[in-house]
Amino acid sequence: MLRLEGAAVRFGARTALDAVDLTVAAHEIVCVLGPSGSGKSTLLRAVAGLQPLDAGRVLLDGADQAGVPAHRRGVGLMFQDHQLFPQRDVGGNVAFGLRMHKVPRDRREPAVAALLDLVGLPGAQRRAVAELSGGEQQRVALARALAPEPRLVMLDEPLGQLDRSLRDRLVVELRRLFGQLGTTVLAVTHDQAEAFALADRVVVMREGRIAQSGPPLDVWQRPASEFVARFLGFDNITEATVAAGHAVTAWGSLPVPDGTPEGPCHILVRPAGVLLRPPGDGLPCEVTGRTFRGGRVALLLHPDRGPALEAECALRDAPAEGARVTVAFAAEDVVVLPGEPAGSAEPDAMEAPTAGR
Ligand SMILES: Nc1ncnc2c1ncn2[C@@H]1O[C@H](COP(=O)(O)OP(=O)(O)OP(=O)(O)O)[C@@H](O)[C@H]1O
Fold it and tell me: Which residues form the ABC transporter domain (predicted)?
């Protein structure tokens, strides 16, 4: 449905989008993730027709959109600050796009009612926008974006201003809603939990380029680079040299999957793969911090050699701060991160990385 080919946008000397190739299939939900300034909003604006390209093409249903103004592209947009019209009631806001598309009144009213049902605000047509909660306003904004039945809905930080619990709830509702409607979605967020809960596919951006693209679980299990791994919050990363089926690291020798290329690389160990062992064999560490996460505890460990480690354990097994522990590493949680040239986006980032399994 949507294809970007070599899309580039420059602001003076700054390259906001750097030769981006991206496709979104019909009915697919794609979430673009990335740090601040990585080009996420610029990407959306380029697709919407609000930002001209300096190079490359945007195609919708195979048609080049060069010169097609935003309102003729058939895309629905929902921005972070959701910009509802304060002087219109809920029904007036949702009907806005329908009026613009000259849908007659007798068809508008049932459409608005159906959309409000869909977003969980049945019968809210006559309520004033100002008296709605943040989450309710967000739903109205969504209903307004969906009303003209756009072929593609684009969401910029759709749940940006809401608190965590409301986000977690709404993101599940959104996914269900999009599935029900068969909506094609391109969303942008810097919240990885939101992206992973909403998306069929996540696209991680770095400095105007795509650092990795894939189903959420794949990206989570096999980050393509140190950048992606760190962006996802993995910190157990160290330099390594692979030889004869093992990686030699500051933490000791770690098992790596068969077929891992020999030579220097970075190694990630997921916190679940840092195993507490009785004193003896393994890497001695001191427990320097504990963070409670539901029934689990994240332990911050200071090893006798090598960088700090995060481990995860059950509440009842959690050693006290200051305790001495020994750790071993589970092979299935060791991930080899392909090398990336220092200071540049990764040219081979779309290739599947080698993963410990
Ligand atoms: N109108 C503009 N003029 C100049 N530079 C701009 C303009 N819009 C964006 N940029 C620059 O382009 C780069 C990408 O910006 P963009 O807003 O797309 O990033 P983002 O990933 O959406 O960031 P955030 O998460 O902070 O919204 C940034 O370096 C930004 O400063």
Answer: 2-232
The whole-angstrom separation of Cα 65 and Cα 48 is 9
**So what's the pLDDT on residue 48?**
92
Cα separation, 251 vs 328, whole angstroms: 10
CA distance linking residue 339 with residue 357, whole number of Å: 19
pLDDT value, residue 340 = 54
Largest CA distance in the chain: 78
AA letter at 103: V
**Nearest-5° angle of CA 114, CA 116, CA 120?**
120
Both tokens assigned to 253: 């020798």
E-strand spans in 176-322?
Answer: 185-189, 201-206, 209-214, 237-243, 246-249, 252-255, 263-269, 274-277, 283-293, 296-303, 309-314
Q: What is the ipTM of this complex?
A: 0.96
Residue 353 clears pLDDT 70, i.e. is over it: no
Task: Mean pLDDT check: name the lowest of 66-70, 107-111, 167-171, 244-248.
Answer: 167-171
What is the number of the ligand 1 atom nearest to the C-alpha of 17? 14
Query: Which residue's CA is minimally distant from atom 4 of ligand 1?
Result: 11
Strand ranges of the sheet holding 29-33, from the earlier edge strand across to the other edge:
75-78, 152-156, 185-189, 29-33, 201-206, 209-214
- Quick check: 350 pLDDT over 60? no
Stretch 189-210: mean pLDDT, rounded? 93
Ligand 1 test: best mutation among 33, 38, 45, 203, most atoms within 8 Å of CB?
38
Q: What pLDDT is recorded for position 345?
A: 39
| Location of structure tokens 């009842």 | 316
Provide φ and ψ at 197, rounded to 5°. Answer: -80, -30
Nearest CA to ligand 1 atom 2: 11
Domains belonging to the chain, first-starting first, are 2-221 (3.40.50.300), 235-337 (no CATH)
Distances (CA, A) of 101 to 74, 95, 118, 294, 336: 11, 10, 21, 49, 52
